[in-house]
Design brief:
Elements (H helix, E strand, L loop, with lengths): L4 E3 L2 E3 L3 E3 L9 H9 L3 E5 L14 H19 L4 E5 L7 H10 L4 E4 L7 H4 L6 E6 L2 H15 L6 E4 L5 E2 L4 H5 L3 H22 L5 E4 L5 H9 L4 E4 L1 H4 L8 H9 L5 E5 L5 E5 L2 H8 L23 H10 L7 E2 L13 H6 L4
Parallel strand pairs: 3-11, 4-5, 5-6, 6-7, 7-8, 8-10, 10-11
Antiparallel strand pairs: 1-2, 9-13, 12-13, 13-14
Helix pairs in contact: 1-2, 2-3, 5-7
Length: 350
C-alpha cells in the first residue's frame, strides 16, 4: 500500500517524483504528463533553451525565457497538478534560474549537483517548496545545519539519490563500481532519522524521497519499509512516448545491454553513468576540441575540459548519438520497448 506524498500544502496523489533529466530529456511534455497522472513532474532547466535560435549567442537569455515557457506549457497539460524544476547548483547564474522559476509560479525547486546552501536565501519570501538532493549523511548534515543556522529554515522535502541513479552522481567512482545495497540502506535510514530531528525542531513534516535504480512496486515498498515517504524515478520515463527526447535517444536505452552501462568522468567534475558509445570512446582517448562556450557550469574551464558537456547532452536529446553523452541509470538496459507514462506508473501503483 502507498500514501499520498505531502510536501507542505502540496499533495501528490501518487508518491512519485519524475526525476529531472537534462539537457532536454524532461521538459514540459514529460513533466506535464506525469503531473496530470497524479505524480510530480519535473522540468530540467539545464540548458533548457538549447533549441532556441539565439541560444549560441545568448544562452542565458534563451534559458531564462524557456524556463517560463516550459512551465507554462506543462501547466496547460496539468492545470491542477504539481510541477517542479531541477536546477543544478553547478549552473552558472544559479540564482537567476531559481528566481525565474519562482517568478513563473513553479511549485517546487529540486537542487543537486553540488550543495544548495544558498537556496533558502535566493528563494526567500516565496511560497515555492525547496528540495535538496543528497547522496550521503554528511551532505544532508551540512545542508540541514547551514539552512538552520543561516536562514532559520528546514527543507520542505529531501531527495536521497543513490549510487544506481543516472547522470551526475555524488559518489567516488570506486563506490559506484562496488555498490553495497545493505550498507546504503543504513545510510538512508540515518538521513531519515536526521531529517526527522529537524522536522521536530521546525514542527513540520519533511518527507524523504529515495531515488536510484528503483524498478518496480517491490523496490518502492522496500524503501517505504525503511522509512521513505516517496520515490523518484527517471530512467524508466525516458522510453515513454511523452518523453521530450528524440526517438533515437530512447532507442539507445532499448538497444543497450548491461555491459554497455559504464561510469564516465564528466567535465562537471563528478562521475556519471552513461551508455557506452563512439563518443565516449573518443573522449577516453583525448580532448575533444570545443567550438564555443555555452557558459553552463561554474567549474568548467573551456581551455582544459575534455569535451563540451552542453554539446554532448544536447546532441543526445536531438538524436545525434555519435556525438552524444547518453546519461542513464544503472538499469537502462532493462527497458525493452516504447511505453507511456501511464505504463510506467502502473509498474508501481495499482
Amino acid at each position: 500500500m502507498y500514501k499520498a506524498l505531502r510536501i507542505g500544502n502540496l499533495t501528490a496523489k501518487l508518491p512519485i517524483i519524475q526525476g529531472g533529466m537534462g539537457v532536454g530529456i524532461s521538459l514540459s511534455n514529460l513533466a506535464g504528463a506525469v503531473s496530470a497522472k497524479g505524480g510530480i513532474g519535473v522540468i530540467s532547466t539545464a540548458q533548457i533553451g538549447f533549441t532556441e535560435p539565439d541560444f549560441d549567442r545568448n544562452p542565458l537569455e534563451a534559458n531564462l525565457r524557456m524556463i517560463g515557457e516550459h512551465i507554462k506549457r506543462a501547466r496547460k497539460l496539468a492545470p491542477s497538478g504539481i510541477l517542479g524544476v531541477n536546477i543544478m547548483v553547478a549552473t552558472q547564474n544559479y540564482a537567476r534560474y531559481v528566481k525565474e522559476a519562482i517568478k513563473n509560479g513553479i511549485d517546487l525547486i529540486i537542487s543537486g549537483a553540488g550543495l544548495p546552501t544558498e537556496l533558502p536565501e535566493i528563494a526567500k519570501g516565496s511560497k515555492t517548496k525547496l528540495v535538496p538532493i543528497v547522496s550521503s549523511l554528511k551532505a544532508a548534515s551540512v545542508i540541514l545545519k547551514m539552512w538552520d543556522r543561516k536562514n532559520n529554515v528546514a527543507p520542505d522535502a529531501i531527495i536521497i539519490e543513490g549510487p544506481k541513479a543516472g547522470g551526475h552522481l555524488g559518489f567516488h567512482p570506486e563506490e559506484l563500481e562496488h555498490i553495497d545495497d545493505a550498507a546504503y540502506d543504513e545510510e538512508i535510514k540515518s538521513i531519515i532519522a536526521l531529517t526527522k530531528d529537524y522536522g521536530t525542531k521546525y514542527d513540520k513534516e519533511i518527507p524523504v524521497i529515495v531515488a536510484g535504480g528503483i524498478q518496480n512496486k517491490q523496490d518502492m515498498e522496500h524503501y517505504f519499509s525503511i522509512g521513505a515517504d516517496g520515490i523518484q524515478v527517471a530512467t524508466k520515463f525516458v522510453t515513454t512516448k511523452e518523453c521530450d527526447a528524440d526517438i533515437k535517444y530512447k532507442q539507445a536505452y532499448i538497444d543497450s545491454k548491461e555491459e554497455d552501462i559504464i561510469i564516465v568522468k564528466s567535465p562537471v567534475g563528478m562521475p556519471g553513468r552513461a551508455i557506452k558509445n563512439s563518443f565516449m570512446e573518443r573522449a577516453g582517448l583525448g580532448r575533444i576540441p570545443i567550438k564555443r562556450c555555452h557558459n553552463c557550469i561554474k567549474t568548467c574551464n573551456p581551455a582544459e575540459t575534455p569535451y563540451c558537456i552542453t554539446d554532448a547532452l544536447a546532441n543526445a536529446a536531438r538524436g545525434d548519438l555519435d556525438e552524444a553523452l547518453l546519461f542513464c541509470g544503472a538499469y537502462a538496459y532493462k527497458e525493452d520497448r516504447i511505453r507511456t507514462v501511464q505504463d510506467v506508473l502502473d509498474d508501481f501503483f495499482d
